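dumping the sequnces here before i forget
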Amino acid sequence: MTEEEKSPLEAPQKQRRPYASAALLVIITAFIITISTGAIAYAVQGLTEAEPDEGVLVNGVREFRITAQQWYYGPGLLKADPGETVKFIVTSADITHGFAINELGFNLSLSSTAVKHEVVIPSDIPDGIYTMYCSIFCGIGHPYMKGGLIVGTPGVGLGKILPYVATVVMVGIFGVFIVKGRRGAR
Ligand code: CUA
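..and the predicted 3d for all of it:
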C-alpha cells in the first residue's frame, strides 16, 4: 500500500476513487441524519420547556404525570423544591422507554401502563437542573431523549448552555469535514 492510498482524503487525487467517494457519502449522510435528529429533538424540547410543570400537590406529595414518546417527555421540564416528596406517574405512548434521574437514584422501565414512583428530594441537594433521561435504547433519537427537573431556584448554569455549545462544535467539525472532503475530491 502506498502512502497515497493510506490517506485518500488528503492525498491529491490522480485517479478516480469511487470507493472513497462512496464511503465519504455514507459518512456525510450519517452526520446529517445525526445532526438533524439532534436539532429536531432540541427544538421539540425547547417548545415543551418554555414553562416548567410544577405538578399537583396531593396530600403533601407533588405529583407529576408524564408521557414518554419518541423522543421526548411531555412535560419535559419539571419543578420541585428540596425536601419535597415527589411522585412520578409515567406512561409511554409508543415503544418501551426508560426514565431515570441519577441524583435521585431511580431508573424506571416504561410501557403503556403507568409506572408510579415516589421519591424524596434530599433537603440538602444543591439547587440545580437535574437531568431526566431515557435509559433504554429506543431508536436514533435515543441519545437526545432528555428532560430536566428544576430543584429550587438555580441560576443559569453551564448545564443549560452546554448542549448548545456541543451542537455548535459538532456543526463546526462537520463543516470542516465537508470542506476537506471537497478539496480531496478535486
Ligand atoms: Cu426513549 Cu431511549
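Residues 71, 97, 134, 136-138, 142, 145 surround dinuclear copper ion (CB under 6 Å).
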